Amino acid sequence: MSDFWRLFFSIIIALPLTFLTLPAHSSPILITQITAGDFLELGVDKMRRGDYQEAIKNLNQAMPTAVNYALKKDLAVAYSDRCLAHLQLQDYHQAIADCTQAINFAPDNFEAYLNRGVAYYRQGDYSAAIVDHNRAVTLKPSDFRAYYNRGLARAGDGKDSEAILDFNLALTQIPRISSLLLADIYNDRGLAHFVLQDIQAAMLDFNLAIRLNANDYRAYFNRGCACGRNGDDFGAVRDFSQVIRLNPSNAQAYVNRGVAQYRLGYHLGAIADLQKASEYYGQQGKKVAYEKTLDLLKNLRQQISSVTEVALF
Prior knowledge:
- This protein is mostly helical and 313 residues long.
- 71% of the residues lie in helices and 0% in strands.
- It has 16 helices and no strands.
């Protein structure tokens, strides 16, 4: 295989599905008037329903302009909940500001540290995210979310060995009935093993993730990458085909399956996959990936211009 192909067949791992955050569950509170607690509860209910804009409006109404000391912990809950709504709307700057305010009112507010850590992570500030999750772990050492989120932040910061330790701790704390969450943790631990080039451990974790959640394309994608790294191109084709079945517009899965087919000698199948990938990249506005895929197609066609071959797919 040419160096050109080796360079392109880089592993593009699937991102973690989501950080684990939950709105604070609180009883109605009285701030400056009787309806303030009702607005807080209504805001939390709107978040549960996914109506984050309305949640913010209700939480705004739950916050009085004048605050006395006795109500600081209640306001901390409101700010922490509004932070979560901003997180869902990807307004990370405002989410950080709200969580910081919540922490100012109640320095022991676990949810505020957890959510601010997520906001820092999504801004790419992994060090700040780790600091907040350290505090969350101190406040609630039995809550698996703090370990899991810190593990993701450490992985983002290139500290994969430490991330694995956190994922292990999360696995000891998570309820066994949470099969989908367990699958996420195994998948993310597998990615950390993969980055550390422990492919055997990565494969074991991806297998567990798939066993727990057979409809999560990310685990198949990652296992396909691990198969490719191990030289198991048949396994790679199998897993990337499953990704495409579950997520038909996944252009990178077409590219990776195309590369695996090329290495197996199925050139026409490789061309078909790369053509499909270029179409999706074009539709998705991913110009660089689109141009790279066209370069691959050109290179492949040049190599097989005088060869006729039956494709696998």
